[in-house]
Q: What sequence folds into this?
């Protein structure tokens, strides 16, 4: 009886931690975007500080989400960077002034 209560308590604590981790993960990039888009079997476009809407070998379209206030930018399209030459963007949130560095790289 007592053991069952103890186990139940641990399970609900673990569930709480899991939910917190999930919430933090979701806050990173805008809804409907991805951190990684694969362009082929071995090539992947990866964004840091932003979420990719779509990417191909020519163009990459992404959206930035402010990590401080949650503001989401308009879609931004850039030329897909060459492998080993990441595209770095210094972005300032128009809502709260938070500075965020966005990196789009091809691996
Ligand atoms: Zn902001």
A:
């Amino acid at each position: 009886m007592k053991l069952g209560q103890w186990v139940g308590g641990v399970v609900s604590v673990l569930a709480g931690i899991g939910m917190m981790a999930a919430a933090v993960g979701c806050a990173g990039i805008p809804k409907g975007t991805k951190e990684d888009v694969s362009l082929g079997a071995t090539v992947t476009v990866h964004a840091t500080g932003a979420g990719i809407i779509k990417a191909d070998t020519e163009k990459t379209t992404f959206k930035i989400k402010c990590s401080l206030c949650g503001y989401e930018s308009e879609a931004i399209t850039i030329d897909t960077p060459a492998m080993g030459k990441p595209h770095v963007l210094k972005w300032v949130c128009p809502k709260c002034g938070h500075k965020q560095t966005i990196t789009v790289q091809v691996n």
